Amino acid sequence: MTPTGGEATVDAPDVSSVNADVSVNFQSHDRIPEHVVESLIRLVWKTREIARDNLFGWSQGFTFSSAEPTALIQLHGGPCAVIAPVQAYLLKNAIYTSPNSNADPRWREKNGNEVLQATFLELFSLLDVSHFTLVLPFGNPAKRNADAMVHDAPENPDSFERDFHLNLRIQKFSSLNQLQKFLTDHPTLFSSSFGILRFLYSLILSKTIQKIEDDLEDPSEPLIDAAHGHGNQPLTNLIITGRAVNNVWDDVKEFGGLRLQGIHFRPAVGYLSLLENMRYVEVGFYLKCPQYPIWLLGSETHLSIIFALIPSLVTSEAEEAAAIRVFKQYDEHGSGFIDTGKLKDVLTQLDLFREDDYVKSLQDKLDKDNLGLILRSDFLSEFFPHTNKFNNSKPFSVYHYNGLLRNGDTPVKYHHGRATILEVDVDLQIIDIPEDCGNGIDSDSAIVRCLRTKYPRVQIVWDDNKIPSIN
């Protein structure tokens, strides 16, 4: 199972300025039954004996940077598997109103909490359920927000885990509209202590523990690594797509009689992995080509984000995504090919030219060895040869986000750069570099190596020639 977090603990900043929804006392709501708590802990942590440091790493709420109103911060190692996907959707909602809309030039100035509430609602809607459950704070939600969250250890280590899990309380909702109203009335519900973990538990209980276990290849493997406290890939996939599948390839693959589930549609935000650059994993088309130009970047130990303000960077791939879906309908075993006799059916469903003479000519072209098979890659190359060629090698703005706070007083900020996607016949050194960017071309950083799993000839010039960290 591929880890998506596991960062070293860092010093936390002063978060005493974070507002809490202190007007509501949640003690009157239902406790979660003990057997449900046990099942929840087993699914998320595997054991009731949770390492104290690991649980404490997940004790923060959703908190914004003092320097970027729309940038969430990560106080300790561990919860990037939740924070980064939520941040990706938050950016989508701050920047775009639809896949074809232009970027809002004021996206960095928006009210982060307001956008975050819309983001929460969208992530619950991805679960494809009709009833929802929220895990609420116990008593005064502000109690640990300005106090214990900035400490490096719990005030009472012996009761830390016990008190949290024994005091879990829930409220249920029978519609998305009811959920929306409650979140609107309590805008900082997940900003107080343990807000990130309570949000994760809310997603799980809304989808149900059983359905999460059905998604997993091995339900005995927890969503959070028991040894190191980082989130595993199914956890990140749950937030991105609504399903806690283990893999990041497209659809289903069969190995030795096992059907291993992957991603089944183009989500709003994507995912690229440094481990694919190392040939350890395979990220499929759906995650590489999301609806918006926003990608999670997975290193060996952390999740960060890279995003652009040009929707055409991915909207040009929508037709190819449709072609892939249709092709797979006729690829009965998910083997990456179809019988030549099914080519006309594929063309018909895609509303492409399908006269008999043309179909016969295309069959001969795509099946040169007369095997009676047409590979999906050959089919896509025939009809979509220029999908990954963008903007005629002209530079465009990209931003990198890393929410993990470092030692010192440097706040979390978006890091700006100018990216160039080169066509095959363009020399790597012949690009138009803006004069104010210096001459430091980033052509081999971890960020660029992630991006090259999608854009093989991409380069970035970062502001001040400072390459941001992916870890």
UniProtKB/TrEMBL annotation:
Residues 318-353 form the EF-hand domain. GO terms for biological process: protein K48-linked deubiquitination; proteolysis. InterPro entries: EF-hand-dom_pair, EF_hand_dom, MINDY-3/4_CD, MINY3/4. GO terms for molecular function: calcium ion binding; cysteine-type deubiquitinase activity; K48-linked deubiquitinase activity. Its EC number is 3.4.19.12. It is an enzyme of class 3 (hydrolase). Keywords: Hydrolase, Protease, Thiol protease, Ubl conjugation pathway. It comes from the Eukaryota. It catalyses: Thiol-dependent hydrolysis of ester, thioester, amide, peptide and isopeptide bonds formed by the C-terminal Gly of ubiquitin (a 76-residue protein attached to proteins as an intracellular targeting signal). Belongs to the MINDY deubiquitinase family. FAM188 subfamily. Hydrolase that can remove 'Lys-48'-linked conjugated ubiquitin from proteins. This is Ubiquitin carboxyl-terminal hydrolase MINDY. It comes from Ramazzottius varieornatus (Water bear).
